[in-house]
Design brief:
This protein has 5 helices and 10 strands. It has helices at about 10-20, 50-55, 75-85, 125-140, 185-195; strands spanning about 1-5, 25-30, 40-45, 60-65, 95, 145-150, 155, 165, 180, 200-205.
């Protein structure tokens, strides 16, 4: 498959690039500056300068963009909208690296993790920004999107076990009672979804075993 990974220099982006390359896919890194990923094909361009022509011919575009400072959190929605607009009306899928804060903690789907008392206050602004971007992409019927949330404890330097559990809209735990996944195992599940294409216009989540 032909895959473009936007923000390929980020931790999640690099691992998704590596996982897809290891499976023999044709991967292009989209980066603002020098490429740090293992992709040999590169589009060196600001995300907001990308055009329809830049993304034409890909099967999947991965949105691995992340912003961390409060003054830039709006860029989650802005960047996602820009990519969705570029892919509008095409068969190119938009795969989004999402957050865990928007996962529901009750079967009625009325309470999200970010709204619980235990959720760390320091992460609430980021979680709210990612929750907003999920709500916005849900309104897009013109784009073949999939929003992929990790579970609560998303470990950047966690081990690659090669195993994960595919879950849905609700926060889940494994047999050990943990809600945890490494970036490396998340990348495995993410690329599996790229290949399987089973959850168009859905949010899914990935949990470590």
């Amino acid at each position: 498959m032909k895959i473009a990974v936007v923000a390929a220099n980020g931790k999640a982006g690099q691992l998704i690039v590596e996982e897809a390359l290891n499976r023999g896919h044709d991967v292009t890194a989209v980066v603002r500056s020098s490429n740090k990923s293992k992709a040999q094909k590169v589009i060196e361009k600001d995300l907001f300068d990308l055009t329809k022509e830049d993304l034409a011919g890909f099967d999947v575009v991965v949105d691995a963009f992340g912003a961390w400072t409060e003054d830039q959190l709006h860029l989650h929605s802005d960047s996602q909208k820009h990519l969705a607009d570029l892919l509008s009306g095409t068969d190119i899928r938009l795969m989004i690296v999402g957050g865990a804060g928007s996962l529901y903690v009750n079967p009625e789907h009325t309470v999200q993790l970010v709204d619980t008392p235990e959720f760390p206050a320091v992460f609430k602004p980021l979680a709210n920004a990612q929750r907003q971007s999920l709500a916005e992409i849900r309104e897009r019927n013109d784009v073949k999107w999939t929003f992929v949330s990790p579970t609560a404890d998303f470990q950047a330097d966690g081990n690659r076990t090669g195993q994960y559990i595919l879950a849905g809209e609700e926060l889940t735990t494994n047999d050990k009672g943990e809600s945890i996944i490494s970036y490396a195992d998340y990348a495995i599940g993410f690329v599996d979804e790229i290949e399987n294409s089973k959850h168009i216009k859905e949010r899914i989540s990935l949990l470590g075993k």
